[in-house]
Amino acid sequence: MNRGLVLKAVREVWPVTLGLGLALLAIEAVLAYVLPTFQQQFSQQIMQLQFAQTLIKALLGTDMGKGEPMGPEMITAIAWVHPVVLALVWAHAIVVCTRVPAGEVDRGTIDVLLGLPVSRWELFLSDTAVWLASGAVLMGAALAGNLYGASRVTGSSTPGLGRLVIALADLFCLYLAVGGLAWLMSALSDRKGRAMAAVFILVVGSFLLNYLAQFWRPAERLAFLGVLNYYRPLFVLRDGAWPLRDMAVLGGVGAALWLAAGIVFARRDLCTV
Amino acid sequence: MIVVQSLTRRYGRRRGIEDVSFSVPEGSLFGFLGPNGAGKTTTIRVMLGFLRPSAGGATIFGHDCWRRSRRVKTEVGYVPGDLRLPPWFTGAGALRIVGAVRGQDLTRPGRDLAEQFGMDMRVKVRNMSRGMRQKLGLIIALAPRARLLILDEPTTGLDPLMQEQFRRHLKALSGAGHTIFFSSHTLGEVEVLCDRVAIVRDGRLVADDTLEALRRQAGHEVMIRWKDAGAGATVQPPAFLSLRQRDGATWHGALDGPVGPLADWLAGKPIEDLAVGRPDLESLFRRYYQQKGGDG
Question: What letter would DSSP give residue B125?
Fold first, then answer.
């Protein structure tokens, strides 16, 4: 790692981290407040909509009893699997992890950067450190928003902080998996837009696969390929157990993709013209 | 200091550089000349470890440019041909970050250079003109006072006064023992600056020598003005004089060999004026390209 490269990466990453962090904080606060407050009405209305039921089932990774109202854990878990929350977390991973090398090559600044006495691995590791730290900040913002929203709800039983932290760790592993994919796409590309689009398509594909798997048998067989198959905060919030297998899969996939990205970046040609 | 040996770099079917060899001794001011697309930037990108050679290789300070790129760059200052900087950089901020990357405090040398080049270090890159961005690129490359400077068309966007200032700075650095690798397609600046020149054309090196030796090889430039246009039209030039332009009473051409035979041939002929001189780099360059069948 190199201090100067870390300084540069921090300067470039903080605006997007601040923006998405505030958005995540706000949406988590709203969800953590609104969902338990209007639990009864929400639960009844959702039960009428087949599409919404399937979507929530897909996101939560569990079946809901027909006609049964949703319990407090299920309501709380929605705040952690809501598509807007996932979109914000993924957006941060995609934007930050496609900066090097695709973003730098794309804007032509890689020449000045790698004209300095640094190795490509140093650049890669420095940016990775900033990515991980900014991801942790993002998770912190989500937790803070969730706790704040929940604190405004009167007479509601919410899962303890310990369970929320485990759910958050699971979300961080999901973030790592998407980030690892973004690093690899970035290492393979000279255009940030293309790298971002490729990750976006794969992530949306994973989301759709998870949704289709609820009612389409061929998709069900392939569901293990989707990242959301390994992110099920409902079980964490309900049981309080660490989802070690899921976290290992997500973290392992993220680490493998990240390592592949580093190797590709270290060996590839860099051409801005 | 720089040794490039049989260096070849291809981009798939596209030509890059082919079998390029040259060496740059320590302390020299080396001009690397060629038109756009000739392969100058490709050569530099291999030297800085951005591109892996397809064949051959390059070493700087005895270190392989691909495998030990980081080591090589500790003693190199580099200005890319198409200089781009992060839009949020200010001059001062850029020096802080580059200084932190290099583990050097560049504030003072950077401030001195900024003063010398008339650069406001508080302006953000996004608000800078092309010339200001180029100045900042030069300051970033020069401030660490690296042993070797690799400059890819560094005067692009600079006004003539600034170009002159920059040339003086380079000469002073060269005088202090720094080595300068100066890539350019602008012949005039290489001519006034460099002591040794390599010319690259269509990805191949076509010349590598001192400026004086290249001029000697190229023979003399000759201008003959006849007393009347009729003489200019009817007289047949001798074999040792290749005419480039025959414009009424005036001939322009190149002399192959010594001046004596030309003087003998002209004796008694109705000439009004005669000029014989060493070619400037521009005509030398043009001749290299014409001789080799280049498209210039």
Answer: G
* Residue of chain B with shortest Cα separation from A11: B88
Q: Cα separation of B189 and B206, whole Å?
A: 20
Cα separation, B108 vs B111, whole angstroms: 5
- Give the per-residue pLDDT at B90: 96
Q: Is the peptide bond before A101 cis (omega within 30 degrees of 0)?
A: yes
With the CA atoms of A99, A102, A103 and A104 taken in that order, what torsion angle do they form, in degrees rounded to the nearest 10? Answer: 100
**B126 DSSP assignment:** G
| pLDDT bucket at B248, cuts 50 / 70 / 90 | confident
pLDDT tens across B162-221, in order?
999 999 999 999 999 999 999 998 777 888 899 999 999 889 998 898 888 877 776 788
Burial of B54 (0-12, 13-18, 19+ CB in 10 A): middle
Q: What is the pTM of this model?
A: 0.86
Q: Which of B64, B75, B84 should one mutate to test binding to chain A, selecting the residue with the greatest count of A CBs within 10 A? A: B84
What SS3 state is found at B269?
coil
Lowest mean per-residue pLDDT among A48-57, A94-103, A142-151: A48-57
For the segment B270-290, the average pLDDT, to the nearest whole number, is 76
- Decide: B52 and A77 in contact? Cβ < 8 Å: no
Of A5, A115, A271, the CB nearest to B73: A115
Chain A contact for B130, CB < 8 A?
Answer: no
- Contact between B75 and B61 under an 8 Å Cβ cutoff? The reply is yes
- Closest chain B C-alpha to A90 CA, distance in angstroms: 25
Residues 85-104, chain B: which have Cβ within 8 Å of A?
A: 85-86, 88, 96-102
Cβ-defined contact of A118 to B73 (cutoff 8 Å): yes
d(CA A113, CA A265) in angstroms, rounded, equals 14
**Residue A47: pLDDT band by 50, 70, 90 thresholds?**
low
Measured between CA atoms, the residue of chain A closest to residue B95 is A4
Q: Chain A contacts of B74, Cβ < 8 Å?
A: 117
Which contiguous run of DSSP H or E holds residue B271?
strand B271-277
Spatial neighbors of B194 by CB under 8 A, at least 6 apart, are B29, B30, B31, B182, B211
CA distance B43 to A269: 13
Cβ B42 vs Cβ B51: under 8 Å:
yes
ipTM of the shown complex: 0.84
Q: What is the mean pLDDT of chain B?
A: 90
Residue B130: both structure tokens together: 């092309």
Tokens coding A192: 């940030």
Residues in A closer than 8 angstroms to B139, CB to CB, are none
Distance CA B112, CA B110 (A): 5
- Can you spell out the DSSP letters for A23-87? HHHHHHHHHHHHHHHTHHHHHHHHHH-HHHHHHHHHHHTS---TTPPPPHHHHHHHHHH-HHHHH
Q: Is B116 helix (H, G, I), strand (E, B) or coil?
A: helix
